[in-house]
Amino acid sequence: MLTSQSPISQLPRVGKSLSNKLKRLEISTLEDLIFYYPFRYDDLTKITPIAKIIPGQIFTVRGKILVIANRRTPLKRKIITEAIITDHSGSVKAIWFSQPFLTKTLKPGENVYFSGKTETGQNGLYFSNPVYEKITEWKKETLHTARLVPIYSLKDKITQKQFRFLIKQSLPYGKLIYDWLPLEIKKNLTLADLNFCLKQIHFPENNYYLEKAIYRIKFNELFLLQLQGQKIKKDLQKLKAEKIDFHLKETKKFTSSLPFKLTDSQRKSSWEILRDLQKETPMNRLLEGDVGSGKTLVAAIISLNNALSGFQTAFMAPTEILAKQHFKTLNKVFKNYKIKIALFTRTDKKIQNKNKISEIKKSALIKKISEGEIQIIVGTHALIQKEIEFKNLSLVIVDEQHRFGVEQRAILTKKSKTHKFPHFLSMTATPIPRSLALTLYGDLDLSVINEMPKGRKKIITKIVSPQDRTKANQFIRKEIEKGRQVFIICPLIEESDLLGVKATTIEYERLKKEIFPDLKIGLLHGKMKTREKEKIRLEFLENKINILVATSMVEVGVDIPNASVMVIEGAERFGLAQLYQFRGRVGRSEYQSYCFLFAESNSLNAKQRLNALLTAKNGFELAEKDLEIRGAGEIYGVKQSGFLSCLKLAKLTDYKIIIEAKKWAMKIINQDPELSAYPNLKEKLIELDKIIHLE
Ligand code: ADP
Ligand code: MG
Q: Which of 146, 449, 637, 646 is at a distance of 20 to 30 A from 292, taking alpha carbons?
């Protein structure tokens, strides 16, 4: 007995070779086949009387074969098969190349459909290589012609016909695939039966049913992701976190001690976070804000409240240099406070005491942390190290990492002597479109800083044509003479140059030898060791390097206020959101800053895209555009992630379905957090967890 879990090799006409080819499409069971959806449909529903067909278009006709025979072409000695079919209105010729077996498949007198493009030759109109399909008494339904015909994305010379045949064979077993979607949702949204949808998605009877099927399948995919997010959220609510008071007076005093006024967004985000912290359930929040929008200050405000409540904060950055930067910033803003701050990275352990920063031994620092003497610990992921133990860690802030694993959080929980779950804030400068955030980060609450501090000079952005390159170089030189610094970003020049070694090295050599031999130029690419990279970054930060040539991986978040020019080579090769990020590296101080875009392609499309960068109001606007143009995988590097692989049909632009799915996921989880009434759904969710944890 075959089931949906049976291997495809059990289907008729599937031998070892085809099995292997299908494996390369990640198809090994009948169910995999059923879930391998078409990427488009050819509408061949309309049947045209032969008398009505004209040259140069695609037609489907239905008729009887009059004659069929093979012959050789005079010159090339290739085999041509010719047939004539006729209907009540007329007759027409069909020609196939190099398919001599056709005379064995199709016989005179048989009824067939032909679908294909018509052409005109010396002897008039004919079908060139039409798709054919026989009509018999026992087989009335067609798969390849005279219908909405599914087209699949295939490789290894698997033909569409062959694949459709396999799908057709596997579809009956779709009945055995359990439908885990709760009945109340199906009823409420009048969703069609799953098995029906699976049939319709492959071989739609009409456009209406196809739409229904697409909606249902997209809903299934998105609902499951939403459900997972809501489940994580609900599970977190069962855990205990410290209740952190909002110290209104001190917070006001702190903000008024700053040399500037908080932006409304900073104020609102801080308030949202502080409100979360007053609850006894762990916060799980993402703070989004453009580069330079002042997220660090928000982090400082909440760390202050946490310290005043008597708890410890861990502030983690992805690199040592960023950790050092944050340490410096916090020391500056808390100059007049009694808060003890420490830096803990692999190579550097420092502590601030009475406004003096001094080195400290690792063991001594670890002791101070465990005794609770240090209130804010800034560091890299070295903070999760085994030896470190906190007295009462209640808040974890992570910069530039969107998601902090539940496991990582659990580790930190164990490290705190209170054994309470820490509140968690993640900060990112990547403008994540709402739909993506909802789907990918459904378990996180969102705070957004969507304005820049007042008084920032607008970055002057120019698309530079090749003939103006010399001028641009002269301009760069002038800026450097004024004491400023310059970034040059290079795109990958070839597929294999994954780490940008070649791209950057060529540019680096060119600048060093030909353009600016007298200046100090630095190089940064993906093949370099972490230590080397840190060294170069530090030299750039200390203005020992005038021009930094880098791949697209320039570390997000690095603050080099002295840099005033961002040059982007091959700009059209980057996504808009990415370009926006690059540009954000400059314009972080009082200096007027510039962004020069060099494009290799002169195409209208490239120009339009780059122009969007000149006009867009903020990063979110660009991110939405990018999402539409290029899809999420490209932009966020999440193509391979388990999350997106769950979305076979649904797209992140299916905003309405996402919202609907979220609504229902919340409803189900709220009424039945353990999903006891939905065993199938529960099982499906466990399966999904496994996929995602494999990442
Ligand atoms: P990011 O959001 O990229 O982490 P930062 O927190 O590094 O941004 O802030 C960038 C710069 O802006 C810092 O030098 C900071 O002191 C300054 N800044 C932050 N908030 C304001 C504000 N409200 N007004 C003026 N400058 C501000
Ligand atoms: Mg930052």
A: 637
pLDDT, tens digit, 9 for 90 and up, residues 238-254: 889 999 999 999 999 99
Write the class of the CATH domain 248-278+294-428: alpha beta
340: CA distance to ligand 1 center in Å?
Answer: 22
- For domain 460-617, give the CATH number: 3.40.50.300
User: Per-domain residue ranges for the chain?
Assistant: 1-44+154-175, 46-146, 248-278+294-428, 460-617
Check whether 369 has a pLDDT greater than 50: yes
- Does ligand 1 have an atom closer than 6 angstroms to the CB of 287? no
- Report DSSP letters for 594-621, one per residue: EEEEE-S---HHHHHHHHHHHH-SSHHH
Going by pLDDT thresholds of 50, 70 and 90, the confidence category of residue 402 is low
List, in order, residues 6 or more apart from 577 with CB less than 8 Å away: 430, 431, 619, 622, 623, 626, 635
Are 556 and 429 in contact by the 8 Å Cβ rule? The answer is yes
CA of 324 to the centre of ligand 2 (A): 12
Topology agreement, domain 1-44+154-175 and domain 460-617: no
Q: Tell me which residue has its CA closest to atom 9 in ligand 1.
A: 294
CATH topology of domain 1-44+154-175: DNA polymerase; domain 1 (1.10.150)
What integer pLDDT is reported at residue 636 of this predicted model? Answer: 55
Multiple choice CATH, 46-146, 2.40.50.140, 3.20.10.10, 3.40.1490.10, 3.10.20.30: 2.40.50.140
Taking the CA of residue 295 as reference, the ligand 1 atom at the shortest distance is 2
Count how many residues are written for the chain. 695
Using one digit for the tens of pLDDT, what is the confidence trace for 324-366? Answer: 889 999 999 999 888 999 999 988 899 987 778 899 999 999 9
pLDDT reported for residue 577: 75
Number of the ligand closest to the Cα of 258: 1
Query: Which residue is closest in CA terms to ligand 1's atom 26?
Result: 453
Nearest atom within ligand 1 for CA of residue 557? 3
Our answer on whether the CB atom of 587 is closer than 6 Å to any ligand 1 atom is: no
Q: Report the C-alpha gap between 685 and 675 in whole angstroms.
A: 10
Please identify, by atom number, the ligand 1 atom nearest to the C-alpha of residue 266: 23
Share of the chain above pLDDT 90, in %: 60
Q: How many Cβ atoms are within 10 Å of 571's Cβ, its own excluded?
A: 25
The finding on whether 583 has its CB within 6 A of some atom of ligand 1 is no
Q: What is the 3-state secondary structure (H, E, C) of 169-225?
A: HHHHHHHHCCCCCCHHHHHHCCCCCHHHHHHHHHCCCCHHHHHHHHHHHHHHHHHHH
pLDDT at 216 over 90: yes
CA separation, residue 162 to residues 43, 121, 647 (Å): 19, 30, 25
Q: Which residues surround ligand 2, an ion (CB under 5 A)?
A: 557
Is the model more confident about 550 or about 652?
A: 550
Beta bridge partners of 596: 462, 567
pLDDT exceeds 50 at position 306: yes
- Return the pLDDT at 639: 45
- Tell me the torsion sign for CA atoms 266, 271, 273, 277: positive
- Name the percent of the chain lying above pLDDT 70: 94
Would you say the CB of residue 293 lies under 6 angstroms from ligand 1?
yes
Beta partners for 359? 350
Classified as helix, coil or strand, 662 is helix
CA distances from 390 to 79, 312, 387 (A): 80, 8, 10
